[in-house]
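Handout, section 3.2

Students often ask what a structure token actually looks like in practice. Rather than define it abstractly, here is a full record for Tetratricopeptide repeat protein. The first block is the sequence as you would receive it.
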Amino acid sequence: MPFAGLGLHVLLALFCAFHVVRTGRQLYWLFILFAFPVLGSVVYFLMVYVPDSRLRRGARKAVTATARAIDPMKEVRLARADFEQMPTAQNQMRLASALLETGKAAEAATLYESGLQGPFASDPELRFGAARAFIESHGYAQALVHLEALRASRPEYRPDAVSLLLGRCYAGTLRPADARREFEQAIARFGTFEAHAEYAIWALETGDVATAGRLRSEIDKMTSRWNGMTRKLNEAVMLRLKAAAHGHGGMHF
């Protein structure tokens, strides 16, 4: 029996350690996991892994979306006030994130770029945020620099999201072959609704009606199983897809 308990602890610690490395957590967690048998793994699982799960992220997004619908600029006001009172890197990134989520992408991009000039120059969250902000403000070339650096230095960091942003950057910098390859790889590797939708948006905007039609069949299968929360979480991408269909392909999604 003691050996069975030891084996379970080792498996749990290895699982948590893999999560530490894959998600780019601070490496002191590895010491905690193996220096404090069982307890270290339990603490990591409850404090880091569970809050980081897709279910919790989805719930947080739904709550945030509801609050934003009631008072869209509340978080921007609070974040700006905190940053003006105490201009720390953390408050700067909070303000950049709030600006990005409320459509002020150009200002967000400036803040993210500023943060990347300091000691957090290689921080993956900042690079990812900067890339998103530049894409939303149509600075595809600038976004591409961040995404390619992120993929080269941290290939394990949010590979599905990075792949889709890269596809949009290649499209925005007039590299259609690279864009198609990136979207097709994203569908093959991850198979998410967002991957299908982003590929369909690109196909419609480039006049590839055949590809858009093929993707529509898969998208219809996915969306037919959605509940209200899932539909709300994917609302932004769906609106872009419908706009692309209306403006370019004449399809209905």
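Discussion prompt for tutorial groups: The chain has 15 helices and no strands. How would you have guessed this from the sequence alone?
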